User: What shape does this take?
Amino acid sequence: MNILVVNGVNLNMTGRREKGVYGTQTLREINDEIASFADKLGITVKFFQSNLEGEICTAIQSAEGKYDGIVLNAGAFTHYSYAIRDAIASVSVPVVEVHMSNVHAREEFRRNSVLTPVCKGEVLGFGKNSYILALESFLL
Ligand code: DQA
Assistant: This one.
């Protein structure tokens, strides 16, 4: 099984921004943990991060036929990007939406995701483990 883990805007700052919310580990450290966990599950993972909305759309489009699933933390794009929503809707690859924080316990604007309706499911609030739980969901 091949899974693409996509991180959107500002996720490259993980470990350096809002440490109380997102923790102190860098995205690279988190990705390393995801990779070794995936290895134990027999899943091959590739990682992609971009701060650019269009690049996220291209990554999703390009996953068609190459990956069995996408784990997507779109960052703030989650709350307003109809372009990413349409990219998800345009492929048959299942996408699981992820958030490290519990977005429902934060600011009002974070409570709405324009992506959830076109995603297979959503995992949120478990810090870096949200990615791992999302990965495991592809084995169910
Ligand atoms: C986030 C939550 C978003 O609201 C925020 O804009 C992020 C990270 C999370 O992982 O909790 O950048 O997606």
